[in-house]
Amino acid sequence: MAQKSSDETSAGSQRARRVRVLQILTCDGIGGTELMVVKLASALARDRFDVHVALLAPGGPITQRLRAAGVAVWPLGGRGWAITAWRLGQVLRRGRYDVVHAYGFKGPFLARFLVRALTRARFVSGVQGLHPAEVEDMRSFKSRLVLTLERLTSRLVDVYDANSEGAAHLLDAHGIAPGRIRYIPNGIATAEWGVPDHVPADVPLVACVARFISRKRQHDLVLAASKLLAEGVALRLVFAGEGPTLGQVRAAADDLGIAEHVRFAGPLDSAGVRALLAETDVYCQPSLWEGMPATVLEAMACGRAVVATRVNGIEDLVRDGETGWLVPPCEPAALAQGLREALADPDRRRALGAAGRQRVEREFREDRMLAIKGELYSELALGTRER
């Protein structure tokens, strides 16, 4: 019998060994990126991948979810960035990872230097939107500084993982990592987010599920609802989420005299969001900018028509006139017009909601996202780079 060469034996062993992946998150709060990482870490095939997670923050709800799913997780923050960086370095040294994947700006910026200095791992930087500096003005000094630093240090990144076409185009337009950008959209488990039975109520319900932060622009939705209610349009408005601007949005509803038409449901888990969407007639996302909003995916998967702003990430999901209504951001009057059209025509919003569900099943399934991410990690672990 012919014996295998040492090269063949080595290659077979490398294929058989599980790919060790470290995911790095900057914060431990409930958000689209964080929940996507929980799903990725817990759902990638464990016979092929060994996925760990490091958080550059004290432990919180994401840490709890990961531990409940049996994923190794290290909350490293709480005592300043110097100590956090040292702790991350220790995790990298001990972990012997094949691939390190970090998200946002601070996490990837810190991690790329540590990965190159301390490990032989391949490094992936996850880009979640058009505003890497987390500021609203792309022309601001902070945004320009962040993009300059990204361009200067991009040689330390093996692959940029962009979850929206806009994010991929942003990197390309600034000459960052040509040939090393992968567009991998988020996905959703369509079996878990099926179209629920819906009995229309006398007063239609408009829902918005999002963190209360300035860029989500819930205040614009309150203004739009106030305009419609003043015109005699019947609606109920439900917000789910928490965050620093919650008090301002609640005060706006009081000041405009529409508090009796608005309910603040607080933060909801997945079961709570599904229950809310079962009652929902129109889902609204009034954001100034997005990465790829998981809540819009969830609403579409549940067959709900969407009224949202025409911004990066949302445009990847919602096609105006086909699966929902798109309006300019920061324009409450335009938002009111989109809602007015959706609320006035139940048959059309049901048709657009059904088309949205079909689009999610066709292009944004979770199993598709997991397969593409898995292929990327396997490719990088074998040492193949696209330069």
UniProtKB/TrEMBL annotation:
Determine if Transferase is one of this entry's keywords: yes
Q: Where is the Glycosyl transferase family domain?
A: 201-359
InterPro entries assigned to the protein according to its UniProt record, in alphabetical order: Glyco_trans_1 (IPR001296), Glyco_trans_4-like_N (IPR028098)
Q: Which Pfam families match?
A: Glyco_transf_4, Glycos_transf_1
Bilayer-crossing regions:
none
Q: Which domain of life is it from?
A: Bacteria
- What protein name applies here? Glycosyltransferase
Organism field? uncultured Solirubrobacteraceae bacterium
